[in-house]
Amino acid sequence: MFVPLHDGVPLRFMRAPYVTYGLICACIVLFLVTVPLRSDAGQIAIAAGFGMIPSVLFGQAALPPELVQAPAWATLFTNVLLHASFAHLLGNMLFLWVFGDNVEDAMGHWRFLAFFFLCGLAGSLAHALMHPGSEQPLIGASGAISGVIASYLLLYPQVRIWGLAFKWIPLRIPAMYALTAWILFQIASAFLDPRGNVGWWAHLGGLAAGAALTPILIHRGVTLFGRVARG
């Protein structure tokens, strides 16, 4: 696996990626607010009430009234801002920090915000369709961030990214290689570990949405398969 740490792409169209910062802050704040509730009962209440449960979404099952926090359709979105653990949160926010600013720069603030949640929606739906009878809640921004990764790969495939291979070997390699390897890992995992605890199909749904939406949402002055960052 490759953990990204830094890229060298300057912003072109905005002073700061406020939406990326806001999404990171929202995820962190929600995680910290729910830390006091991290007992077994508290975790169940949060995940069941705001996570996306496929069987509940499709009407095959129903939550006990005391666990209902949001309508089933709304959990397609609320699950995106929740995370199960600090490691889950840290990994997702690191990817969003490294890649989100340049995708937001290429789209603009409001388009990027819509893009993020549409990718999250696509990821949630992909997971639900592949596991329609599942009673396990899906939570996490991984589907949305997978869309960001797909967009970044389309926009800056030649940019060299600093990161850690296998979590400890420092490398600086083109995004095309690092992110393509990451995507292939998601595809392989979806088929080799279909009943695991990771929502692999949510990742793939987000990737597909990100690839489809990027050409539609980027500024006219932005080209796909673009420039190499200097420095």
In the CATH hierarchy, what is the class? Mainly Alpha
**What's the number of structural domains?**
1
Q: In which range does the helix fraction lie?
A: 55-70%
Gross geometry: globular
Q: Strand order across the biggest sheet?
A: 1-2-3
Short summary:
Helices cover 56% and strands 7% of the residues. By secondary structure, it is mainly α. The protein has a single domain (2-217), classed as Rhomboid-like fold.
Account of the 3D structure:
With 231 residues, this protein is mainly α. The protein has one domain: Rhomboid-like fold, CATH 1.20.1540. It is built from nine helices and three strands, in the order E-H-H-H-H-H-H-H-E-E-H-H. It has helices spanning 18-34, 40-50, 54-57, 75-78, 86-107, 109-130, 142-155, 175-192, 200-217; strands at residues 2-6, 160-165, 169-174. It has a three-stranded antiparallel sheet. Strand 2 (160-165) and strand 3 (169-174) form a beta hairpin. Helix 6 crosses helix 7 (142-155), helix 6 (109-130) runs antiparallel to helix 9 (200-217) and helix 7 packs antiparallel against helix 8 (175-192). The longest helix has 22 residues, at 86-107. The protein is globular. The two termini are 25 Å apart. The relative contact order is 0.18.
List the helices and strands and how they pair.
Blueprint: E1 2-6, H1 18-34, H2 40-50, H3 54-57, H4 75-78, H5 86-107, H6 109-130, H7 142-155, E2 160-165, E3 169-174, H8 175-192, H9 200-217
Antiparallel strand pairs: 1-2, 2-3
Helix pairs in contact: 1-5, 5-6, 5-7, 6-7, 6-9, 7-8, 7-9, 8-9
